[in-house]
């Protein structure tokens, strides 16, 4: 894809699946880093109290002065106040830690409780080309905030038989948010993760996915490899840690495929 003449306004994408361990965080980090390599200015938002995105980028989640939780609960704290620059040029992080686990309860009594993240992102949307929100594995108020703040949803799905079961519920939630809160919300695409080409099982699940969701399924598939857990420990994207690995190439290909689907690149 061609370089950009200038940055912004960003496309905001939620990385969402209420099941844990399907590759949401891994995809957020590595797709983000791959987009940054292509000259896109990228903001990653850790929206899971587990803080795996934060840790995965080498930031100490327990040693944060302020995090996304402060942005949600104190309207005078902006995203700019809490963001961290990563070792990857053009890649910024809004960190999170376990403090965020209280936000869901604290927000319930707020007026406009579903729009709090959207309002915060609005203030920085012109500074970035892409914002990726790493959602927690639930469809609660935090995830509804992420969906309300987003232009689209990307669904990472592991290539396992039971993976398809949860998608209906997720699509239902997306439809509800579209009807009530965010009429322009789209499905960006479905990303098959943990793919193992040696098993007929993986190939069958992928075929079922394409049958059910057609063109929404990205042609790029993420293969299962131990390199990903290794990068988590290293606190770096795979594009930095194992720059020439198949896993790094897969996320670069995903970044190119995604950009090529956008009318404006
Ligand atoms: P989620 O955010 O959906 O809970 P993660 O991205 O944290 O999922 O992935 C869960 C675990 O699986 C992590 O240990 C991660 O390193 C590992 N993992 C992610 N993608 C892959 C892959 N393609 N192959 C092998 N392991 C992976
Ligand atoms: Mg995660």
Mean pLDDT: 95
- Global structural class: alpha/beta
What level of helicity do the residues show? 40-55%
Biggest sheet record: 7 strands, mixed
Helix count from the secondary structure assignment: 12
Question: What's the name of the CATH homologous superfamily?
Answer: P-loop containing nucleotide triphosphate hydrolases
Strand order across the biggest sheet? 3-4-2-5-1-6-7
The CATH topology? Rossmann fold
CATH class: Alpha Beta
Bound molecules: adenosine-5'-diphosphate, magnesium ion
Radius of gyration: 17 Å
What general form does the structure show? Answer: globular
Number of strands: 7
Distance between the termini: 7 Å
State the CATH architecture: 3-Layer(aba) Sandwich
SSE order: EHEHHHEEHHEHEHEHHHH
Q: Low-confidence spans: pLDDT under 50, at least 5 residues?
A: none
If you had to describe this structure to a student in words, what would you say it looks like?
The protein is an alpha/beta fold and 265 residues long. It has a single domain, classed as P-loop containing nucleotide triphosphate hydrolases (Rossmann fold, 3-Layer(aba) Sandwich), CATH 3.40.50.300. It is built from twelve helices and seven strands. Strands 3-4-2-5-1-6-7 form a seven-stranded mixed beta sheet, with helices on both faces. Strand 3 and strand 4 form a beta hairpin. It is globular. The N and C termini lie close together (7 Å). Bound molecules: adenosine-5'-diphosphate and magnesium ion. Magnesium ion binds next to helix 1.
């Amino acid at each position: 894809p061609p370089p950009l003449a200038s940055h912004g306004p960003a496309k905001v994408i939620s990385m969402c699946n209420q099941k844990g361990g399907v590759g949401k965080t891994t995809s957020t980090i590595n797709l983000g880093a791959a987009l940054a390599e292509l000259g896109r200015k990228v903001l990653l938002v850790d929206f899971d109290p587990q803080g795996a995105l934060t840790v995965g980028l080498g930031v100490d989640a327990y040693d944060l002065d302020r995090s996304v939780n402060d942005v949600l609960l104190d309207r005078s704290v902006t995203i700019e106040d809490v963001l961290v620059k990563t070792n990857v040029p053009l890649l910024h992080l809004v960190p999170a830690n376990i403090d965020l686990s209280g936000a869901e309860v604290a927000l319930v009594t707020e007026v406009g409780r579903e729009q709090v993240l959207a309002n915060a992102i609005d203030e920085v949307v012109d500074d970035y080309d892409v914002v990726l929100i790493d959602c927690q594995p639930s469809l609660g108020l935090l995830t509804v905030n992420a969906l309300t703040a987003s232009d689209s949803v990307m669904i990472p799905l592991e290539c396992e038989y039971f993976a398809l079961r949860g998608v209906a519920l997720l699509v239902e939630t997306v439809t509800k948010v579209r009807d009530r809160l965010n009429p322009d919300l789209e499905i960006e695409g479905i990303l098959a993760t943990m793919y193992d080409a040696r098993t007929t099982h993986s190939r069958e699940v992928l075929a079922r996915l394409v049958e059910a969701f057609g063109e929404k399924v990205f042609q790029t598939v993420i293969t299962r490899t131990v390199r990903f857990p290794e990068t988590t420990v290293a606190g770096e994207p795979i594009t930095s840690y194992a720059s020439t690995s198949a896993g790094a190439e897969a996320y670069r290909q995903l970044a190119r495929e995604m950009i090529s689907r956008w009318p404006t690149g």
